[in-house]
Specification:
- There is one protein chain.
- With 344 residues, this protein is mostly helical.
- 52% of the residues lie in helices and 6% in strands.
- Strands 1-2-3 form a 3-stranded parallel β-sheet. A two-stranded parallel ribbon has the order 4-5.
- Helix 8 links the parallel strand 4 and strand 5.
- Helix 4 crosses helix 13.
- The chain is globular and about 70 Å long.
- The chain starts with 8 loop residues before the first strand and ends in a 9-residue tail after the last helix.
- The relative contact order is 0.14.
- The structure holds adenosine-5'-tetraphosphate.
- Adenosine-5'-tetraphosphate (AQP) binds next to strand 1 and helix 1.
């Protein structure tokens, strides 16, 4: 762990449900790497138990988990600076999730829009795990008493629920501020990258259409094709963000360009105002290829050595458990569960 002088502890997770998209990269991972360079502790978790809330082929799940680790390393996460591990290797997550299932109210979970989106029309057929997903997410964060959680806009509601669970636990058991109320870190131009096929829908790694997203392992040809085919409108680019109201696809492409080039969307518009998409799209494709293809090359090289990846996960899990286990033991004490002396 870093020798942090402040009390900030960063935690975030990502599901091994497919190849990382540029949405995951810009909304989460790129900022994880930036935060790693700061003084705070950074704990990053591959949330494989979350992935299991929807059907995953066991062999594919193992492969996708390793691929995800390779992408995170290729994006710049350094296991010497951040703790990187997979959730199922640290039992504290599931243990605390059960306690939180008993703290959270069904009414709270009923309000979660992600469950409604993912369960679709036939909610009765969704897994219990998918419904309880937010309590496991609260456990992921609070098992480390994390104070800050970098996420995309889509996870804001789950973060609010995490704060509600922490408050209720602290209040029910009269333990002051035992659990911190974690703050979401939702910043930048790409907190919600939208589908390339529909500017009203979030870009997702599990979307049925591969042309809805750019994956970090897409070839330069495929990136060019996807951007060329991305839905737009017939108008040229305007000179202010206000004028992009009602043009979600155009706004999305401008935001992607801004986030990839670390510029404000306003500055990007200044450069391209009055231009047609036939001019802007090749520029966006060029920038995307420049940023994404080196990541994909590194990723392929890392995947040649699965043992190295497994070792990183194993070492990360050991360090993570050293932080989380004493917190879980305190929770059990607070709740009144009897523990073996050696476990205290
Ligand atoms: N489109 C997005 N724009 C910005 N940020 C995004 N994130 C996901 N999609 C976007 C952020 O990526 C992190 C990891 O997300 P996740 O894999 O745990 O789950 P998710 O939000 O459900 O992501 P996907 O890609 O949509 O996965 P599937 O298709 O499996 O459900 C989070 O910080 C998220 O905010």
């Amino acid at each position: 762990m870093k020798n942090s002088s402040n009390e900030k502890r960063i935690f975030s997770g990502i599901q091994p449900t497919g190849n990382l998209t540029i949405g995951n990269y810009l909304g989460a991972v790129k900022r994880w790497v930036k935060l790693q360079a700061e003084k705070s502790d950074t704990i990053y978790c591959i949330v494989d138990l979350h992935a299991a809330t929807t059907w995953q082929d066991p062999r594919e799940l193992r492969e996708t988990t390793r691929e995800l680790v390779a992408s995170l390393l290729a994006c710049g996460l350094n296991p010497k600076e951040s703790i990187l591990f997979n959730q199922s290797q640290v039992s504290a997550h599931s243990e605390l999730a059960w306690i939180f299932n008993c703290v959270a109210r069904i009414g709270w979970l009923n309000r979660m829009t992600q469950f409604k989106d993912k369960a679709g029309k036939d909610k009765e057929k969704a897994s219990v795990g998918l419904f309880a997903y937010p309590t496991l997410m609260a456990a992921d964060i609070l098992a480390y008493k994390a104070t800050h959680v970098p996420v995309g806009e889509d996870q804001k509601q789950h973060l609010e629920l995490t704060r509600d669970i922490a408050s209720k636990f602290n209040l029910d058991y009269k333990v002051g501020d035992f659990f911190p109320l974690p703050e979401p870190l939702i910043e930048g131009a790409a907190t919600r990258v939208m589908s390339l096929r529909d500017g009203q829908k979030k870009m997702s790694k599990s979307d049925a259409s591969d042309f809805s997203r750019i994956n970090l392992n897409d070839s330069s040809d495929l990136i060019n094709q996807k951007i060329k085919k991305a839905k737009t409108d017939p108008y040229p680019l305007p000179d202010s963000l206000d004028e992009l109201q009602g043009r979600p696809e155009a706004l999305n492409l401008i935001n992607i360009y801004a986030a990839l080039s670390d510029r404000a969307p306003e500055t990007v518009l200044e450069e391209f105002s009055g231009r047609e998409f036939s001019y802007f799209k090749p520029k966006l494709a060029e920038l995307t290829v420049d940023q994404i293809c080196p990541i994909s090359d590194k990723m392929k090289a890392l995947l040649k050595d699965p043992n190295y990846i497994d070792c990183i996960l194993h070492e990360g899990s050991t360090t993570a458990a050293q932080i989380a286990n004493p917190i879980i033991h305190e929770v059990y004490e607070i709740v009144g569960l009897i523990r073996k002396r050696s476990q205290l």
